[in-house]
Design brief:
This is CRAL-TRIO domain-containing protein. It holds the Pfam family CRAL_TRIO_2. It comes from Glycine max (Soybean). By secondary structure, the protein is α/β, with parallel strands linked by helices. It has a single domain, classed as Phosphatidylinositol Transfer Protein Sec14p. The chain contains 10 helices and 5 strands. Helix 3 links the parallel strand 2 and strand 3. It is globular and about 50 Å long.
Length: 246
C-alpha cells in the first residue's frame, strides 16, 4: 500500500513448536515504554529554569505510603495560580515526574486546606488537561490521590462536574481524607511534612464537624469550591516583572 516493508513486522509462532514467545512480547513492551518516555520528554526543555517554582514547595516528592507508592505532595495554598500560566504548570509537573519519578508506582497527597479558588486553584479543567497530556504509563503508575480537607462543597463539585472534566481513570483514584488522623491509615506519620497551617486547619474542623456536611456555616471559607476556570491573568500585570510568570 505504498508503505515500506520496515513499517511493521509480524512474528507467527505455531502452538506446537514449544517456542517461548515471551522474549518477543518483552521486546515489544520495551519499545512501548521507550515511546512513552519520549512522549513525556518532548515537553521538557533542558535549559528551562524551575528554581522559582521549586522554592515555593507546592510540589515535592516525599516518602512512601504503606503500599510502597512514592508520595508526590501538593500543598494547594503554596501555589500562586494567578501568576503561573497553565502551560508552565504543565511543563513543571512533567519535569518533576520525569526527573524524580521515572519508574514505579506513586500516589499524590493533595492538601486543600485553606485554599482560595481565586488565588490557589488552577481549575479542574487545567488539572484534567495536564493529566490527559501525561503518557499512558504515568497515568497507570498513579495509584491514589489523597484529597485532604476537601469540604462538602468540594466533594459536591467533584462528584458532579468531576465526571465531566476528569477522566474515569483519575476520578476513581480520588480518596477523600477529611481529617489527618485518617491519613495515617495509609501513610506512616513522618513520611511527609505537614505544614503547621494544615494542622491548625484540622483542629478547627475537628471543632466544627458539621461543616463537612454543609450543615454548619463556613464563615472562614475553609472549604472553598475548586474553580473550573482559568484563574491565570487576574494579577498578571502586577506580577509581570516576576519570574513566576512564564
Amino acid at each position: 500500500m505504498g508503505g515500506s516493508s520496515e513499517d511493521f513486522s509480524v512474528v507467527v509462532l505455531a502452538s506446537d513448536l514449544g517456542v517461548d514467545a515471551r522474549p518477543f512480547l518483552e521486546h515489544d513492551q520495551q519499545q512501548q515504554e521507550e515511546e512513552n518516555w519520549h512522549d513525556c520528554s518532548q515537553y521538557l526543555s533542558p535549559d528551562e529554569d524551575f528554581s522559582d517554582l521549586d522554592q515555593l514547595q507546592f510540589l515535592r516528592l516525599q516518602g512512601s505510603d504503606k503500599n510502597s507508592n512514592r508520595i508526590l505532595r501538593i500543598v494547594g495554598k503554596y501555589f500562586p495560580a494567578t501568576v503561573v500560566s497553565a502551560e508552565r504548570l504543565k511543563r513543571y509537573v512533567f519535569h518533576k515526574i520525569c526527573s524524580e519519578l521515572p519508574e514505579g508506582p506513586f500516589c499524590i497527597v493533595y492538601m486543600h486546606s485553606t485554599v482560595q479558588k481565586e488565588d490557589n486553584s488552577p481549575g479542574i479543567t487545567i488539572l484534567s488537561w495536564i493529566y490527559e497530556e501525561l503518557p499512558a504509563d504515568f497515568k497507570d503508575r498513579l495509584q491514589t490521590v489523597y484529597f485532604i480537607h476537601p469540604g462538602f462543597r468540594s466533594r459536591l463539585v467533584i462528584a458532579t462536574l468531576g465526571r465531566i472534566f476528569l477522566s474515569g481513570g483519575l476520578y476513581w483514584k480520588i480518596k477523600y481524607v477529611s481529617r489527618l488522623q485518617y491519613l495515617w491509615d495509609d501513610i506512616k506519620k513522618g513520611e511527609i511534612e505537614i505544614p503547621d497551617f494544615v494542622k491548625s486547619h484540622d483542629d478547627i474542623l475537628e471543632n466544627r464537624p458539621l461543616t463537612d456536611y454543609g450543615i454548619e456555616p463556613d464563615p472562614f471559607h475553609l472549604t472553598g469550591i475548586p474553580s473550573t476556570t482559568y484563574s491565570f491573568g487576574k494579577y498578571e500585570e502586577r506580577w509581570a516583572g516576576r519570574n513566576y510568570v512564564s
